[in-house]
Amino acid sequence: MARVLVVEDERNIADALRRGLAAEGFAVDVALDGMDGLWKATEVEYDVILLDVMLPGLSGYKVLEQLRADGVVTPVLMLTAKDGDFDIADALDMGADDYLTKPFSFVVLVARVRALYRRGARTQSNIMEAGDLLLDSTRRRCERDGKEILLTAREFGVLEYLMSRRDEVVSKTEILASVWDENFDGDLNIVEVYVRYLRRKIDVPFGRHAIETVRGAGYRLHRDGG
Ligand code: CA
What we know:
By secondary structure, the protein is α/β, with parallel strands linked by helices. It has helices at about 10-25, 35-45, 60-70, 90-95, 105-125, 155-165, 170-180, 190-205, and strands at about 5, 25-30, 50, 75-80, 100, 125-130, 135, 140-145, 145-150, 170, 210-215, 220.
């Protein structure tokens, strides 16, 4: 399901967007100011962000600028007021993907959101597969059997490395070198700890064994997903 973030301080518009988009089959989160919008957009993976320009605290421009500076590539549709001093060229320069002027037709808005969603899904995905286990490196998303699995950054890194070398035996040293900071001088056992965490998330609930322990050598992630 496509996940949309609505950043809009006018509560009636935000509520109408939430209800309308939910009825169209989107999962919708709402942020009522720029700071909360920025926080949500950096913490959660959205497919499309609707961003009002005039927001209390942090303007839509600033939110957009910060998101792009942080490397968040989610498509952004700016919502602007007709009488505002909105500059389309500025917004597009800053990385907005589209804009709509209020008051807008809801039908048009949904069409634009769908278009951005399709475009985003095409350009952002970099998916590795092992059976029904999917890992999208660009969007930092993991799925198994169609269900999203939430991984920490470190768990994601370990799984990403194992998947990039599917069917090979990978040593703990190699995983450590790839996923941890080069200055990390801790114990190799940290890798075992993270493999255990991963198994609890990607294997155990699904009754699978994607990650095999190869005694004395390391781990192997099976191409068929175990
Ligand atoms: Ca506003």
